[in-house]
Amino acid sequence: MPTLTDGVLFGIGILVLDFLAWRFMDSKSEQARLVFRALLFGLLSYVLFSSGMNPLRAAPWEDQPLRHLLAQVLEVVWWLQGARLLTIVLDRAVLPETWHKERLFQDVFGALLFLAAGVGAIAFVLQLPVRGLLATSGALAVVLGLAIQSTLNDVFSGVVLNATEPFRIGDWVTVGEVEGKVVESNWRATSLLNGQGNIVVIPNSVAARANIVNANQPMNTHGISVVLPVKPSIRPAVVLEALANAAASSEDVLNDPKPLVSVRRATNDAIEYEIVCYVDTLSKKVDVRNALFDLAHRHLLSRGVVLRPLSVSEPAVEVMDEKHRLLRNVLIFQTLDDEEIAELKAKLTKHEFDAADTIYAAADEGGHELHILALGVAKVTVPKDGGELELRRLAPGDSIGQSGILAGVRTSVIVRALTRATVFRLDKAALTPILARRPEVVREMCRLLSEHHESEKMLLASPANVDESPGGLLQWIRDGVRRFHELTL
Fold this sequence. Notes:
The protein is an alpha+beta fold.
């Protein structure tokens, strides 16, 4: 029978404490738990060796079956505990940090160490013939290998995938026909979180044979492709220039690599054009791609090219001249009728600019005019720290100068042409009758101006006591409109 002095009960007590530490200690304090369990393993080693239970020899007390059995259990557990601690320590010290989240290498590494510990326990503690055991296990391994051939294929494919690292945890990838975010890669399969919020489990053997597209590589460069079919009667040079300007209109599109616009192919009823450009973060791809479709529509429309279904006959539409089409697509004038549009059209003045020319610098102007971009691309900047900070870009149909035309407020923004540009201008006298009859136009212009104020700090002349909340700023702008145009709104 074991007694309190032979170390068996001490060893069992240490194993109970180790189990409690593994089960109940906070998993977030992994380092503290590892240190505590290492101390318990050291204490167990001291108890066993000092009590005559050397794990490198057969268990003592063969004449006392119960004590002998408990000693064997303690010595075998010592081998397994040592394998577990060695797995964790080597995982942290030897394996690269990027592999710490990969279960495959941890599982394979741990299995090899536990196998070695099991063989050591059998040879030293149980005194069984290892050579015969290995011969028997080899035959058994052949039988098991044939039975689990597909599983072994997944395991070795997983080793190849994790060694070559075509993707990492958190990457957005396409594996064959499946697209999603990598959330786990273990010894059997790779799990993706798709766009519908579902987990898709792909066996490693399937992933190793499939085409893998990693949207996160290379870093800070993520491609976007936009394909548009246009009727073949439109001259390709016109479409290519419009689409190049569409890509230049988005400030999120990278200049390096440079956006590429090309003719993709020609069919019997259409010519397909493609915009290929890049953004710096994966999260921008959807928004920028959607914006490019809108910008392409606006730039094509500014050249009289209307996107429409090409599978049906072209409908009969009223032909609009350049000025009418431009005013009809300006957001602040969308509520006006044809007579009011014609009234404004007669008062438009046309101006041409080359790339890098200054289109608008309100701080240097004496008059007050609304500038409407009809063709090309322009950028809006403000002076900052001796240079200029780009705020946004203008595409056909965008306007600038609302602060001056509404309330006579001087601003600090500067607008320069990025490409050759055509701008139409409306002065205060041309807009005052429209503003008097159409308060909704005033409200829309005030709304746009108040939205820009937060990011652009446009209203340099606004008093210090103006309420900067959207409602307070909006009311202040409306009051300025009343005074400047002598209106009753």
